[in-house]
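Data deposition worksheet. Section B asks for the primary sequence of the deposited chain exactly as it was used as input, without tags or linkers unless they were present during the calculation. Section C holds the resulting structure in token form. Section D is free text for depositor observations; keep each observation to a single sentence. Incomplete worksheets are returned to the depositor.
Section A, Depositor: J.P.
Section B:
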Amino acid sequence: MRTLSGKTLFITGASRGIGAAIALKAAADGANIVVAAKTVEPHPKLPGTIYTVAEEIERAGGRALPVPLDIRNEEQITAAVEQAVDTFGGIDILINNASAISLSGTLDTPMKRFDLMFSVNVRGTFACSQACVPYLKKAVNAHILNLSPPLNMQPRWFKEHVAYSMSKYGMSMCVLGMAEEFKGDAVAVNALWPRTVIHTAALAMLGGRVQPESCRKPQIVADAAHVILTRDSRQCTGNFFIDEEVLAEEGITDTRRYAVDPRGTLLSDLFVE
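Section C:
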């Protein structure tokens, strides 16, 4: 059985949602998890802090290191990575999960929000990858996994929210370039994106655009991530994976258990045909 036992995962935005689900899945194997996120105090509208997730990781069988991190801050990234290496002896896997979203058109996107999305989604992904790669090169079966979509250049994926689309595709372009750049170092770089909308607490921040019964649970992404991260990094790189397709390759075709409401009609996520 493929396992992440003993591996050290550095996960950005792991205080809730998909990041936390990936952390708990790996923890069940006995992995070490660096919970790198901004939320150190309870959010008035969103559940979870780096410390509450760390407690869940420990209960699940893993080891946790909660680290306050704003990935817009280069010095904080460097310090977080050094703390991870000092604590666990290295880094085997980087999950670039942290992301900012605004599904707004050009005239309705304040530059402050534009800058936030590019600082977190593109720059943050690049900066965290840059900081972790020297340690990933020393690891056995090293992976970077970006939670970003397949590169689909159809105008319909841009016209309603061009700034957000550019920022998420920026994360995907990191996959495209870094996979080739670090292939000789056996550091795999892949992207993972859900087929359907995933029900997370952050979804509520979008003002009720999507109802929970149209969504799947974060666990489907976590299970797909586990499959990818336990594959041979020398053979599995430069891919833009879709969660249910990854699971289908493993023989898991009945995905009803991942639905928030098995009777609901699932809504396809952005950027997916």
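Section D:
The beta strands are 8-12, 32-37, 63-68, 93-96, 142-146, 187-193, 240-242.
The CA atoms of residues 144 and 189 lie 5 Å apart.
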